[in-house]
Design brief:
Length: 201
């Protein structure tokens, strides 16, 4: 296993390289390209990636703990069974990324593009999705308890069987998605009814 510890990379091109099973600890990457790189089973611990390009990269079974991926592109990346624990993903784009079997634990996924992402049956409790774009995302039977979904775009999001109890949903348009089968708490139910013009005392 190749180790990279306390290193700083700026505008370095790793595109197409084979970095399988590499370990990165406390490294910083700014404006680096990992496009179409082989990153299967890599591990990152307390690393920071800023404006990096992971387009088409293979990140299958990769493990990330306490790392930050800020304003990064994961367009068409393969994140099959990848694990992100306590990671900051703000502003990153996951368009057409394969996120099947992914594991997300805590962390901040605010302002991310998760359009049409399949996250059905995932345990997503307490994750921040502030202003995230979840348009047509599949969150059926997902555990979204205590998530922060403030102003998230949830138009046509699939939520049947999802658990939203305790989630913060300020600014969410309840009219833009089907709530059939969704578990909500009393406070959310009141907001839902008011969104349809009901007067709740």
């Amino acid at each position: 296993m190749e180790q990279h510890i306390d290193r700083r990379y700026e505008a370095v091109v790793f595109s197409g390289r084979d970095l399988k099973e590499s370990e990165f600890v406390s490294c910083t990457f700014e404006r680096c390209s990992f496009a179409h790189a082989s990153l299967e089973e890599i591990q990152t611990n307390r690393c920071r990636f800023v404006h990096c390009d992971f387009q088409g990269a293979m990140l299958n079974a990769s493990v990330h703990a306490g790392s930050a991926f800020e304003n990064c592109s994961f367009v068409n990346a393969n994140l099959f069974v990848a694990t992100f624990t306590d990671c900051k993903m703000t502003g990153s784009d996951f368009s057409n990324a394969n996120m099947d079997g992914i594991t997300l634990t805590n962390g901040d996924w605010s302002y991310t593009n998760l359009r049409q992402t399949r996250l059905a049956k995932q345990h997503l409790r307490s994750i921040r999705f502030v202003e995230a774009d979840l348009y047509e995302a599949d969150l059926a039977k997902a555990d979204l308890r205590d998530c922060d979904l403030t102003r998230a775009v949830m138009a046509k999001t699939k939520l049947q069987g999802a658990d939203l109890r305790g989630a913060i949903m300020d600014g969410v348009d309840f009219k833009s998605f089907d709530v059939k089968g969704v578990r909500m708490d009393a406070a959310q139910a009141v907001v839902f009814l008011r969104s349809y013009g009901a007067k709740v005392d």
